[in-house]
Amino acid sequence: MPVGLFRVCLLVITAIVNHPLFFPKENGTVPENTEEIIQKMKEREESLRLEQLRLEQEIADQEATQKVLEKAAVVVKESKEEKVRWDMWTALSMVIFLLIELWRQDFQEGNWQDIGGEEDDMAVLGKAFKGVAFPDKAVLASFYEKRILGTTGDMARMREMVEGFADDLLEALRSVCNRDADMEVEDCVGVGSVYENWRVRKPFVCDLIVPFAPPEPYCFRCQTWCSGDSFPPDEQGYGTIKVCRADEDATGCICDKTKLGEDMLCLLHSQVSSSRLSSEMEDLLCFKNTQYLDADQVMKWFQIAVTKAWNRISHKYEFDLSFSLLDSPGALKIKFKSGKSIAFNLTPVVQYENSDVYFISHFPRSGLAADIPSSTHWFLTFAVYERRFIQLVSKTLPANACHVSCLQILSFLHGKQCSLTGPSGLTNYHLKTVLLHLLQARPSQDWAPEKLEARLQDMLKFLEKCLHEKKLYHFFIGNGKVPAELGFPIIFQRAEPLNLFRPFVLRRDIYRKMVDTFHEMLRNMSALINEYTVHIPLAHTNGIRKD
Question: Quick one: CATH architecture of 120-247+281-534?
Fold first, then answer.
């Protein structure tokens, strides 16, 4: 009870103390401060709301920008994918177009002779002989005896006469040249069909090559396409000849390979010595401002030297001597007072190192080097080794072997066909290359005289195969089976094989002319041979067994 009364009294006292009437008057300003606080709170709330709206706007703008960037990335990606797809389809379309074009051209090549309904001669090897009346052994033997054997004696006499005159002319040439400044001319070497005894068509033309060398103290440094340096495909078979001093380093001075500063001078070569060297090189028949031998300069020098030599000895002979071809330095013609004439070629060459391979400036009457890259590029000729190979193989063949007869007959047919339809890219050198390949591939007994017909057919079929494949490889270049007795340089044996038909791969008009000439020659073969063959009784012909 007392506790309860105490609590009631305490409550009453507390109420009285806290009554508002007991506080001072100045406390009446509180309500006004509260309103200011509330007003400030409202202003703060408004500013916070505005800030929130600004932040929301920025976030919205950033999201919009991000979406635009994402869309742009997607568009770029899709455009790239579309471009890749377009490039792929473009490339695929180009490939298909090229394949169709190649197929069309090959189809035309295979059927360009079949417009009249004829079968494709080149489709299957040997099919070109279908329907061709090939002469038998008796007709071939009669043709060879009547048309070809009679020319051998005339060719030997002409060869002897030309060799004697050429030796006299070169001796006079040495006498008119300055031994200290002009090129040194060596003895001539006979090459080609006349010296290999298979030339059949008149007029007979002797091919003589004349090696020459620079005067002391200079020497030739030869570089071929297979010597390790890169040569373009169209320069295979060619080389360059650099004229150097014998004591000069093959690599030359470093000032020739680097550009010295304006304040630097080469202690070995000054401007005066460089101009003097350039003048010396021009005197040594080099291309302007280089040390490389110029074939055109050599041609001019040789023609002038031959003219001077002939003027010195012309009083000894009762005939005239003149140049028969303007584009060949040594195409000469002897004209007798009776009206007869003898043509021969005296061509300057440069020996490759210590071998019998020669750099030749020009090929008279030949398409072997028709498109020379430049006058500083010289074609390599292996004519001496070709002659030696035929002589070496002939020693292992049966008596009166038919290898030379095959080449003579084929050369005669080709020449007659060209006189009817005009010349083509096919040359006698191609025919000789076919024979060289077959001589190496076939055993000796296959070249017996009674097998003339079979071997002639082999040569024609081999040539047909080469025309079909557009590949006829040079016999020596890249051939590792060359007999060691020949002493042939190993660098050419290890080289990549050289396709003699490569120039005709891109020149389809010439290739078609070659194939056309070949087919026409096959069709006209019997008629051409019978024209120069005596009549053979039918009984005699039927009594001969074919090989």
Answer: 2-Layer Sandwich (3.30)
- The SS3 call for residue 18 is coil
Sign of the dihedral through C-alpha 53, 56, 61, 67: negative
- Tell me the whole-structure pTM to 2 decimals: 0.70
Per-residue pLDDT of 399-453, as tens digits, reads 999 999 999 999 999 998 998 888 888 999 999 999 999 999 999 999 999 999 9
The per-residue b/e assignment along 312-345, b for 16 or more CB within 10 angstroms, e otherwise, is ebeeeeeeebeebeeebbbbbbbeeeeeeebbbb
DSSP assignment string, 188-225: -EEESTTTTT---SSSPEEEEEEEEEPPTTEEEEEEET
For residue 477, is pLDDT > 90? yes
Distance CA 170, CA 175 (A): 9
DSSP lists the bridge partners of residue 343 as: 205, 333
The DSSP H or E segment spanning 275 is helix 271-283
Looking at the chain, the number of H-run helices and the number of E-run strands are 13, 10
Q: Are 138 and 540 in contact (CB under 8 A)?
A: yes
Where are the chain's structural domains? Answer: 120-247+281-534
CB environment 428-451: b (16+ within 10 A), e (fewer): bbbbbbbbbbbbeeeeeebbbeeb
d(CA 447, CA 397): 7
CA–CA separation, 26 vs 30, rounded Å?
Answer: 9
Q: How far is CA 414 from CA 175, 210, 421, in A?
A: 43, 29, 10
3-state secondary structure (DSSP) of residue 244 = strand
CA distance 23 to 43: 32
Q: Report the alpha-carbon distance of residue 436 to residue 430 in Å, rounded.
A: 10
pLDDT tens digits along 288-325: 888 999 998 998 899 999 999 999 999 999 999 998 87
CA–CA distance, 438 with 459 (Å, rounded to integer): 8
Angle, CA of 419, 425 and 426, to the nearest 5°: 75
d(C-alpha 398, C-alpha 419), whole Å = 34
SS3 387: helix
Give 284-339 as a DSSP string. TTBPTTSSBBPHHHHHHHHHHHHHHHHHHHGGG-SEEEEES-TTSTTEEEEEETTS
Residue for token digits 């005197």? 283
